[in-house]
Structure formats: structure tokens, C-alpha cells
Amino acid sequence: MGEGIAQPEDQRFMAAAIRLSRWHTGRTATNPSVGCVIVRDGVIVGRAVTALGGRPHAEPQALAEAGELARGAAAYVTLEPCSHHGKTPPCAEALIAYGVSRIVISVTDPDIRVSGRGISMLRDAGIEVTTGVLEEEGRRSLAGYLTRQTKNRPYVTLKLAVSADGMIGREGAGQVAITGPQARAQVQALRAETDAILVGIGTAIADDPLLTVRTPGLEAQSPIRIVLDPFLALPLTSKLVETAREVPVIVVACEEVSPLAADAEGLPPSVLPDISPTRGEIGKWRAPNSQAHSSSPATEDVEQGAVPQPISPLVGEMPGRAEGGTSPADMESRRTALEAAGVEIVYCNPYHPEVLLPALATRGISSLLVEGGAKTARLFLEAGLVDRIQLYQSPIVIGEGGIESPLDTTDIPSGFAHRGTYVFGADRLDEYEREN
Question: Are 133 and 266 in the same domain?
Fold first, then answer.
């Protein structure tokens, strides 16, 4: 059976499946959060979302809820049903076994183990398959998974809160509340559906942020916290270090401070240990040094607009480096103390996001929220590695001593489309997405 013809009700039921899929965004490990609804005679008789942790998948759960009513029914799924035997049987087989007569799919799975095969399996079984229904909305709901599959890196959201005079904070003032409680609640919701959140060491020291989800009931959904900290300057008394055993903290340090750096000195890049990270081994991985970047696999995958050459260290984001360098003994002491507190240290040039992001993807991180500060935001923007910009604008005025925002609504980089404007109390949110 070939491509099915879209029916008038398809968009309505697919919209319901997409809404359902968002329930577990960021909570399904390396698997995508997929929504599935089973519809018989215009009535939903089964519905499910990928379970927490990634299993079971949405389709078998929705089919089990529908039971005998699934026979002859239509199934609406946000992502092509899997066709391969992994830790669970293929979802395509379950749909066939339950006797579903029609399947409507929003997005085809780019995973090479699935792509098109699930659809073929269903059609070979005589099931009518319709694809591409609300595909743009479906892709947006699956953005993290799709980006990791197709670009070998997480989907990156840059969030900025900007005052009426174009500032994101005040020098020496620590955290400054720019937006009101309604906007801040939205940011907490964004954190809850994101795998990891990243700040520069300047922000980590100046603001001493916690970077967790503080919305009651959602605390357990706090993202992994990442700090770009080239010379291990993160204070042991910081909130991040003090809570590292409760919510993971990763410090990204320069290769030069790695315990292996001295051993590797003088060796060609091709013989450095642990060049290719595997899932769960990012803490052991040392990225290729700057001389190797022109030929490293991670650099070859940099998308159009990215900056493959080394990016200069960010002035102001590097406190803790003593004049003339930091002694090996002092660095070893800092490293030991941070690791004893539960902090994971990754040796990968913090100013090479085109190398860091694929390394994060190897451990299953599909979405990353860049939340500060101005220099770190500029780093990711200039590298062409931001997929979505959330720009909050507040009526408050910072005044003298303000830290200028790296962008505002008048200078959004080319290649981004404005997706919408939303109002939260006195604050306004403009959202932009990179056009692929």
C-alpha cells in the first residue's frame, strides 16, 4: 500500500499527539519523547507518551490502553515507529499485531536503523501510512533528538533577559532580577525540559547561581549543570559545588591543565589517548589540541556558519589564572578538591564549542540551554551553534555599570526566523529559530 491521503481530522489528532509528547520532553534519556494516540470512529481510545527514562515507547502503551478497540483504528504518532530490535521489540510490529488499519506520522526518523524502514514494514503489512502531518510542529517538539541524530550535537537554546537600556546585569552586583516572576517561571519550565544548562566561569563566580529547577514538583527535572572553567577557578564554596552530589556538575577545563597534558607534550595529535569519546566516558576524554582542529572529525562536521578555527579565550571569563600561569601543584589541589565534592572535570578547550558539543552528544545530551554570561553567549553565536534564541525584554533600567547584552531584537543574526512574541506580566519574550 502506498502513501495514504491525509484526512480532514488528521491535523487535530496529530496536534493532540504532539501536545502529549511534550509531557516528558527532556526526561526520556537518549530516546525521543514521542506521543501516540489511537483513534476509532473519531474518538481517542488510547494515548501515551514515551515513558520516563525512555522505555516503554509510546506506541505499545497506547495500544495496550486501546486493547481490542485498536483493531481497525488509526494511530497518530509524532515520530516514525521503530523497526529494529533493541532493548524492546519494534513498535511497528506491535502496531501490526494489534490490527491497526491506518498510521499517521508527523516526522520520519533520521536514525539509520529506522529511517523509512518502519514505514516500509507497516505498508508491507497492508497498513495505510500517511506521513508529514504537522511536520514543522513535530520537528519542533523533537528538536533535541533530531539535532543529535543529524548534527552530532545537542540542540542549543540561548536565553537572554535584557533590560530596557540593553543590559543583562550590572558589574559587581551579582545576580540582578531583570524579569518578573511570570517570566522567571517560564525559564524554570524551560530548564525542566532541557538536558543540560551552561554558563561561563565569570557568571558562575559573579552570580553564584544554582541553575536548578525550583518550581515545586519539578525539582527532580533539574538539568546537568556545565561551567566553562579553563583553569579550575570554580570556588569550592559555590552553590554549584556544594550541590554537585545532588545535581550533576561538569566543569570544562583547558587541556593544558589535564593530568595527562605533561605526558602528551611533544606527541603528535594522532597518538593522544582517548581521542574518540564513547557514551559515559566524556570525563576521561581529552579533545584534540588546537593544531589538530583542522583535521579532527568533530571539526569536519561543523555546520555552515560555524567557526572551525580556535576561538580566542574570552577576556573576563578566565578568573583564577595567576600571572605567569598556575602552578601544577595548585592545579592538582583544585582538581582533587572539586572531584572530591562530586564535580566531573572534562578536559576539552572551553572555547571550542564545535568540539565540546559533539562530546556532550556522546553521553546522550540532546538539548543544551546557554544561560550566561554575555561573553559565553557571544562565543556560541559567533560559532554558529545556536539553534534557538529566547530573548526576554524587561521595562526595568539598569543604568550605570550595566553589562551590555550581546544582542537585542534589532540585531538578531541572519538565518534566524522570528517564531513568536509572548507576554509574561510586564515582560516580553521574542523567540527566534535557526532556519535550516
Answer: no
